[in-house]
Design a protein that fits this description.
Belongs to the NusB family. This is Transcription antitermination protein NusB. By secondary structure, this protein is mainly alpha-helical. Helices cover about 65% and strands about 5% of the residues. It has a single domain, classed as NusB-like (N-utilizing Substance Protein B Homolog, Chain A, Orthogonal Bundle), CATH 1.10.940.10. The radius of gyration is 15 Å and the shape is globular.
């Protein structure tokens, strides 16, 4: 079964979430768990797990560049410390900032996808918060590119 980019971002969120709570989990275990959530068709007992390449890129990239991504997010938190940000909001923003910095995903697409994830997985205030922070990140990146 082929996953859309939006579904892959959703699975990346589910795979990255445990990393903020348990450092001993492996990337492979986190991805396997995320692929099993709500969609058993992605797991084939005989052939093993099919892991979409982009899902592996997102999870690996966010883990590898987390410090840089977090600094970029923290630059745009007004009167906030990154430790105070809800974990789900933070992971959604990490995925978007990773895509803005390291993938060929247009910044606007990364922003809009993050807002959609926030609508699905967070409280009613989160989409506005995520939009505000990521819009400022996007503006900074766009101005640096010009």
């Amino acid at each position: 079964m082929e996953l859309t980019r939006r579904q892959i971002r959703e699975k990346a969120l589910q795979a990255l979430y445990p990393f903020d709570f348990q450092q001993e989990i492996t990337k492979e275990d986190a991805i396997s768990y995320a692929l099993e959530i709500g969609n058993h068709a992605l797991f084939d007992e005989e052939t093993g797990m099919f892991i979409p390449e982009y899902l592996d890129q997102l999870v690996s990239g966010v883990i590898e560049h987390q410090a840089e991504i977090d600094r970029k997010i923290e630059e745009h938190l007004k009167s906030w410390n990154i430790a105070r940000v809800a974990k789900t909001d933070l992971i959604i923003m990490r995925i978007a900032v990773y895509e803005m910095l390291f993938e060929e995903t247009p910044n606007r697409v990364a922003l809009n996808e993050a807002i959609e994830l926030a609508k699905m997985y967070c409280d009613h205030k989160s989409p506005k918060f995520v939009n505000g922070v990521l819009s400022n990140v996007m503006k900074q990146l766009d101005s640096e590119a010009n």
